[in-house]
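Table S2 (continued). Query chain:
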Amino acid sequence: MPYAQGRVINDADSHVMESLDWLSRHADPKIRDRLSGMRLEAGGSGAEKAIARALARREDAVATAEIATNVIAGPKGWAAYGAIDPGERSKALDDLGFTRQLVFTTFAGSQFLPSPDPDVKYGGARALNRAMADFCRRDRRLVGVGVVPLDDPERALAEVDAAIAEGVGAIWVPAAPAGERSPGHPDLDPVWRRLSEAGVPFMLHVGAASPSLPPAYHKNGRPRPKDWLGGGENLRAKDYVALSFAPQNFLAALALDGVFDRFPALRGGVIELGAGWAVDFLRRLDQAWKGWRKSDPVVAALSAPPSELLRRAVRFTPYATEDAGAIIREGGPELFMFSSDYPHPEGTKNPIERFETSLAGVDETVKDRFYRRNFEDLFAA
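Corresponding output:
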């Protein structure tokens, strides 16, 4: 019996757990040896052993059968069913019962996104997008999310074209300035135009070279604690508080620089960055619009308050640990989507139950938007 029952549920966040050669196997020969190794600190000190065990387990029918049912409550990370093998992932999705599922990378971006060499950065993106398309191409329910850095507009457009040709369904862009430009700079209009015309949404997600809390804030004169999952370099309490800053800056730039006006079909998702901040962010965007439209001709030219532009274009995923019901009641039914984060442990072993608890008393049509239709809206254009 599938985990998700009684309604159509689209999952706006899941992940592939990469093997050590997942990216390099799909890289052009000239770039393959220039990719760095995956930074696995966030996976804990035993990450490489966990990868080896996951690969070996696929050959053990008994061990595989033990984790192939009730996968949402089963092992997480590399040990999860369908985490590393695309054939297993389809069977895991049968058990999960989700109608569609966005699939993001986990660690492979660390092999090229921090590189100062544009050949490595864009060659790595090409390899990742091939790898993601290959992981998802056998099952139409799986929507692979590619990665494209925006530093070089011409190369970014070329990689968007290549990713779409490969079959990825969305593009993850770092929630950061595009090199020395705003992401709303006209030089990037060809990228936004291509995405909007293709009906391929952009995605912002935790990680992917997006700015984080300045390291000095962690230097408090005490030993550095482990992250909340016990790993080496994942999030700590102060990082969590700052997670929303980068996507706010990025979305404000797109809105106030007029990108959503120039490309009304453009859609985007803000994934695994929380959602409780979104409502106040929209209020502050409108305050900025009211305060500066007399002195800033670009802001003055907007066709509507920026909050209206974002309500049309952008969707957010609350954490399972947030009060999604309160967020929806305050922010409106059109902004938010369900996500499981499978097979990452942050998604919990029963995300539907957690969301249902917070959605108690919410109208059924509003729930349908949360679980199904707001996801579909991202691809409707």
